[in-house]
Every structure is written in structure tokens, then in C-alpha cells.
Amino acid sequence: MFSPPSRAIGAIAAAGLAALLAHGSSHAADTYRIAYIDPLSGPFSAVGELMLNHIQFAVEDINAQGGVLGGTELELLKFDSKLSAQESQSALQAAIDQGARAIVTGGSGSSVVTALVQSANRWNQRNPGREVLVLNHSSIDPELTGKTCSFWHFQTEANTAMKMKALAGTIADLPEIRKIYLLNQDYAHGRQWAAYGRQMVGQARPDIQFTGEIFHAIGQVKDFAPYVAGLRQAGADAVITGNWGPDLSLLLKAAGDSGLQLRYFNHSAGAMPGTVTTMSQIRKGDLTWVAEWHPGQADQPQVDALAQRYRQRMGKEFLSPRMDLTPRLLAAAIDKAGQTDSVAVARALEGLRYDSIIGPVEMRAQDHQLLLPQVVNTIAPVDGQKVTVAWEGTDYGFRTDAVFTGAELAQPSDCQMRRP
User: Fold this and answer.
1) Which domain of life is it from (predicted)?
2) Contact between residue 101 and residue 125 where contact means Cβ atoms under 8 Å apart
3) Which residue ranges form the domains of the chain, and what is each CATH number?
4) What is the pTM of this model?
């Protein structure tokens, strides 16, 4: 993991942590501390490690290019959220105590991220001059940039409504999809994924029948066979599921074992380790998901170049431009602000336009929702034409189905931002 330079630790110790936190100017310290808070143990630890690797690579890359403000290095602290709101809030306080000025999170689920943002709001209100920012790379609850929006929170991933709009636009051109079942984890995101699916797909295809809907406890189901039996009984030919991590792979395996041929529509499946391997093993059904990029996507030379550097340094495959982008947006805002004071950095992030490896992106000032492209794609066998790159040592890869700009997917927001 990323180790802070000893000279940075010495400088911070000499200056005193209280002095570092009390002053916004980066020129008073050698480092700017970022805390990573996401699951690093338990059933979703593989997802948390994947996210950490991307954040760590970006931080190291920024430092290799001179850091921020002409020489201030970024220092990455890591904390295990344990997929728990209480643990995450404890980690937030520990991060603040260790001098963190920004939190990077998102893989713990929307309920946990919401609790983190609320805790940051309270801390910032009580501790002017020592505020902390929350950068959310994966929790896609529209409420985070809607009714519960916060000046201190920035979402660097397309939200649930944006992703479902892209999928609905794709389903509109798939006449073979006639009966859809909604199967989701029983928490805020799972219920939103189901609700937006019913609403947006229903609008795009009024002829589609929704044949059933069920929610299950997150991370607790070991055998999805009874749920698959329900899919078969309902006559579904497609499933809208927001499941992720083991809850998705176990569902796919159970359906494959039963011989059920289904089309799955998901938000981030291919960016989770092992999903392609699972599809290649069961060889039943099609898994369609939506992200800012997918491995093997054509005409993406900047992503290809970064992915190669990532592979050489980290020894793993690059999967997520938006995670890599999150620290880079923060660094760009610090440079734009000319200081590390959190209020100034937040104002610099508002409306920030950035030429990323996936194209221009914009942090919408109204609600702090990043507008970035989305690519609908399907995990499918390599055919040398539409699927050219094999993944995870299998003969499966990704097929591009449709591409949307951030502006095309942007949704109205009812955010009423309270700014300091």
C-alpha cells in the first residue's frame, strides 16, 4: 500500500497536527491527506481492494508529476468501512484526527455514504477552518445530489437515474425483451434501481410486462436457487438487478445451474472482479451493464495508455477511469484554488471542467453531480469483431451496445444547496 514519505511525516509532526488543520494554505505543509473509507474485509473486500488500488495509483501518479501547488504531495490513508455506517463514521473521525482533508468513498453503499456525508456536515459546521470534503466515486443514490445534497459532497459517478436512462434507451431497441423481473438488494440503492427501472423502462417500452419484484437482504443470501425458481415461474426473459459483489455472482451461478437463459441489466457488473469469469463458466444468458468505459472499448487511446501503466505498476487490470479520475479532480481543484482550504477547494470543484482520459467531464455546480459519458455494454464471447479483447483469462470480453454523453443523461435536480 502507499507509504507516506518519512520527510512528510517529520514535517507534519514538527508543525503540529493542530496547526496543520487550522490553516488552509498548502504551503504550510508537505502533504495533503486523503482518507480512503470503503470495505476492506468481509464479503465485499475484493471490491474494496479494487477501488483502493485505483485510488492509490492515481495518488502516486499525481505525486510523480509534482503533486499539487508546485510540490505538495498527496498522502493516502486507508480505513475499512466494514460495509457499516457506524464503522464508517468512526473511520471518518479517525481520519480527521490524522489530518485528512478529503474523504474518498462510495463502495460501501448509499446508506453508508449518506451517513458519512451527514457526519461530515456536522463536523464542518462545528469546526470552521477544519472542514473535510467527501468525494463519492460509486454510490449512485440520486438523493445525494438531490434533496439531501451537501456543499461538502461531490459525486464522481453517474447516478442511478442517469444509468437507468442509458439502459432504458438501449432496451427500447431490443424487441426480444418482453417480460422483466425486478430482483434487488433490500437497501436504498436496490429499491431505487427497481423503481427507476420500472419507471424509465416502462416509459421507453410501454409494451413490456413487469412480471415480479422482490428484495433480499444484502450480503446474506448464500443460495439464490429459490429466487431463480421465482424468475422461471414468472416467465421472465430479463432481469433488472442492482446486485453487486457476491450477491450478483451467486445469482448468476444459480440461474446458470438451472439452465435459465436470461438478459440481466445492471449498473456496474463488469467493473467487479470475477463477473466475466462467472459468465464464461455458466455460458447462459447475457449481462448488460453501464459505465464510463469498458475494457477493450474501441478508439480510447488515452485509457489504453493509462491502463498499460496501471498494469505495469499495480500488477492488475485497470477497470475504472472514474475512480482514477476522482483524486485527479481533487488535485485540479486544489491547483485552481491555489490553496488547500476546504471551502476554497469545494468552490473550485463547483463547475470544474476537466479533460479526462474518457473525454471532457464537468462537475455540475448546482448539485455536485459529475456529468461524464456512459457506455452500455454486454459481457459476451470474443468474436474478433464486436468483442476483441478477452478478459480475466477467459474467452469472454465486452461488446459496446450504445454510448451516451453526460449531457444526454443529465437529470433535473431538486438540490437546494446551502453554501457557507
Assistant:
1) Bacteria
2) no
3) 6-158+301-371 (3.40.50.2300), 161-291+373-409 (3.40.50.2300)
4) 0.88
